[in-house]
Amino acid sequence: QVNSKQGGSPCKEKHVVLLSPVGKIQISGCETGVHEIKLPKMSVLPSGAESSVACEVCEGPEEMPQPLQQCTAWLRAYFCEPATTGTLPLPAFHHPLLQRDSFTRQVLWTLLNDVKFGEAVSYKQLADLAGNSRAARAVGGAMRSNPIPIIIPCHRVIRSSGDSGNYGGGQQLKEWLLSHE
User: Domain Methylguanine DNA methyltransferase ribonuclease-like spans what residues (predicted)?
Assistant: First the structure.
C-alpha cells in the first residue's frame, strides 16, 4: 500500500491487466498516479510477439482512475503505434521512490526526459546526464528499482560494450523492446 502525502491516508489502489504482445502487464495506481508496472517475467517470448498483436485491457475496474487510463493508452500506443507515444500525455506517477529527492529519482527522470524512443544510452552516459559521471553502478541500481518500466525506459540503458545488460523482465524482453523501437 502506498500512502498519499495528504495526511498519510492509504490510496484507493486499483489494478489493471493489459494483454500486450509480450504477455500480461500488471499496472497498479490510484487517482493520484501510477504506482507500478509489473512486466511478465519470461525467458522466451510468447509466439506471435509482434507489434501488430492487439493490446487491450483484459482485467480492470469499471471506473478506472485517469492515471491508469492514461497509462494503458500510452502502453497500447507504444506497442501498436509507437510513433504516437510522443503526442500522448504521460500518466502521473505516485510511487514513493519518485516522490522523494534522491539520485535514483534524478536518474529515472533524466532517462524519461532525455533518452528518446529508439535511442540507447550506456550506464556511464546516463550517470553523466544525471550529473554524476562516476555513478554508473548507482545507475544500475536505479534501473533495478524502476517502478514504471517501459514508460520510464530502463530497457534503453545498455552496457558500454554494446551488450544489452540485465533487465527485470528478462533478457529476451529487453532485446524485444530494443528491436521494437
Answer: 19-91
